């Protein structure tokens, strides 16, 4: 077998290695990353190219459908996913958020069942955010994460079992430019997964759970197959049993919605279910069909979970998961408590209650919240209506979802100037935070992440592209969009803190709202602004 030193030939690190993070950036861990990269990066790049080819087909008017070549998988009732892993049997309320030390402590102290620690949409992938997040999780697993910030102490509670930890690595499309292998940046997915898995898998097993992941942004079952191969190689390499690792897949693209059975099948020994990633799903519908005028949607506020295409997606996800005996997880409540307005806060919390009630009655096995204060509302609803650890026994055999149901864009609502300005505010507000290294931005008492910013810019692009008119009678064209963008950026920049980045955000945003250029992801578009690639050091010399 190759030695660590020989594997590290061609591996370079340009991110800063400090006393704080050097326990993560060990030679053995970097050799493990190199092994993953050399084994899987070629496949990853081929799958990304397959996305480009698929998009070209959609641009020509082709519509997705259930795959004829995998019909035998969908129609076979005999196969099932893995039985729930330790710590993942009851997942009724999950809190999500970035991996900064304060968030990690607060999330693990919340009255929830699991914590999804996020390296993806609620984190801006600066080197410090990504590598320090790994340190924080390493310390939290070993219960040595307590710290002081000024006069305030942050300590893990000791009066109850802590929530099960689940980690969301970045999607297949993102790279980590601060580590290169043989001259290529390593995949952000493999970097996030690899460091967490290498350092913590055995420790997690020793403590009664395991290395569990949320897998984002997939567009086909072949991308799930790649994750399964990664899991198998990783487990074999550190000599733990296959099936110990688990992945819950976020169904947050319209193409994945047509391959839910196949995605569970590919991961079946490692599957812990599917999740409704609602905002990314709406973004995906607009993005994938952006050239098709039949898919123009009204103001974001009108695209609720009860409109036909969203309702169909939820029903099919629950039916598919329960047929395969894995968890069907609900979506995010992004609200933040409104402390200075009781009436407004009461109304917002009533909305959270109603949303969670819809989810539990539909058959979901659990749900997401973004703020610890919402956990009690979600728990109240699920405890009342789901007295069992999950409700996989609700098979939803009444559901019959077709291609037309998933693509039914009959969404009542209007396109308004207020809707345009709200999209601009959310897009600019999020991008400005991201450019400062913050990936989770409170705007109008909602915790916005990359997905909601993507919906905002994609809607604007779509409206300009297809020359729609607002309810006020104004045609939405390039000049109008740029005029409103300038007004909103100027207003935000004036009100914002000194040294804010609203005008830099507007520069990037202006290229994304004119119905012309369209970046695959905002995060890819902005990434170079937050990298700190300096002189690189060979990994063998660290």
Task: Give an overview in words.
It catalyses: glyoxylate + acetyl-CoA + H2O = (S)-malate + CoA + H(+). The chain has 542 residues and is α/β, with parallel strands linked by helices. The chain has two domains: 395 residues, Malate synthase, domain 3 (TIM Barrel); 115 residues, Malate synthase, domain III (Malate Synthase G, Chain: A, Domain 4). The protein contains 19 helices and 16 strands. It has an eight-stranded parallel β-sheet. It has a four-stranded antiparallel β-sheet with strand order 8-7-1-16. Helix 5 packs parallel to helix 6, helix 15 packs across helix 16 and helix 17 packs antiparallel against helix 18. The radius of gyration is 23 Å and the shape is globular. The two termini are 22 Å apart.
Beta-strand residue fraction: 5-15%
Q: Considering the protein shown, what is the CATH homologous superfamily of the largest domain?
A: Malate synthase, domain 3
Q: Any idea how many domains?
A: 2
Low-pLDDT parts are: none
Structural class comes to: alpha/beta
CATH class of the largest domain: Alpha Beta
The CATH architecture of the largest domain can be given as Alpha-Beta Barrel
Pathway: Carbohydrate metabolism; glyoxylate cycle; (S)-malate from isocitrate: step 2/2
Protein name: Malate synthase
Subcellular location: Peroxisome
GO molecular function: malate synthase activity
């Amino acid at each position: 077998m190759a030695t660590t030193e020989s594997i590290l030939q061609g591996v370079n690190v340009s991110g800063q290695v400090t006393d704080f993070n050097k326990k993560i950036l060990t030679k053995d861990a970097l050799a493990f990353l190199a092994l993953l990269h050399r084994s899987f990066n070629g496949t990853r790049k081929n799958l990304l190219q397959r996305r480009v080819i698929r998009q070209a087909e959609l641009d020509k008017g082709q519509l997705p459908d259930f795959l004829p070549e995998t019909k035998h998988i969908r129609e076979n009732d005999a196969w099932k996913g893995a039985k729930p892993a330790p710590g993942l049997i009851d997942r009724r309320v999950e809190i999500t958020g970035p991996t900064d030390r304060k968030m990690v402590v607060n999330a693990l102290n919340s009255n929830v069942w699991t914590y999804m620690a996020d390296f993806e949409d609620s984190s801006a992938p600066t080197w410090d955010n990504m590598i320090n997040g790994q340190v924080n999780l390493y310390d939290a697993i070993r219960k040595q994460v307590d710290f002081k910030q000024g006069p305030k102490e942050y300590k893990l509670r000791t009066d109850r079992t802590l929530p099960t930890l689940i980690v969301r690595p970045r999607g297949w499309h993102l790279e980590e430019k601060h580590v290169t292998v043989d001259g290529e940046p390593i995949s952000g997915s493999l970097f996030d997964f690899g460091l967490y898995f290498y350092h913590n898998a055995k420790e997690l097993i020793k403590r009664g759970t395991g290395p569990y992941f949320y897998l984002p942004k997939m567009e086909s079952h072949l991308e799930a197959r790649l994750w399964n191969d990664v899991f198998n190689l990783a487990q074999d390499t550190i000599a733990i049993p296959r099936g110990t690792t688990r992945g819950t897949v976020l169904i947050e693209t319209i193409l994945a919605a047509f391959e839910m059975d196949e995605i569970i099948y590919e991961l079946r020994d490692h599957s812990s279910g599917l999740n409704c990633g609602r905002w990314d799903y709406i973004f995906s519908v607009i993005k994938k069909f952006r050239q098709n005028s039949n898919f123009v949607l009204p103001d974001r506020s009108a695209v609720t979970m009860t409109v036909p295409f969203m309702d169909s997606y939820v029903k099919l996800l629950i039916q598919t998961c329960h047929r395969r005996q894995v968890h069907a997880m609900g979506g995010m409540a992004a609200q933040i408590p409104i402390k200075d307005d009781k009436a407004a806060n009461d109304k917002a919390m009533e909305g959270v209650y109603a949303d969670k009630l819809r989810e539990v009655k539909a058959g979901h096995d659990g749900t997401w919240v973004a703020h610890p204060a919402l956990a009690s509302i979600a728990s109240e609803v699920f405890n009342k209506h789901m007295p069992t650890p999950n409700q996989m026994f609700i098979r939803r055999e009444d559901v019959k979802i077709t291609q037309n149901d998933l693509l039914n864009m009959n969404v009542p609502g209007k396109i308004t100037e207020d809707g345009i300005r709200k999209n601009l505010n959310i897009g600019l507000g999020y991008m400005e935070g991201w450019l400062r290294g913050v990936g989770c931005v409170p705007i109008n008492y909602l915790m916005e992440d990359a997905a909601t910013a993507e919906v905002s810019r994609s809607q604007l692009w779509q409206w300009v592209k297809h020359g729609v008119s607002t309810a006020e009678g104004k045609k939405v064209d390039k000049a109008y969009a740029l005029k409103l963008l300038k007004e909103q950026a100027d207003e935000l920049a004036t009100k914002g803190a000194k040294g804010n980045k609203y005008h830099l955000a507007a520069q990037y945003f202006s290229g994304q709202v004119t119905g012309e250029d369209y970046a695959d992801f905002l995060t890819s578009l902005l990434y170079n602004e937050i990298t700190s690639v300096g002189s690189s050091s060979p990994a063998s010399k660290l």
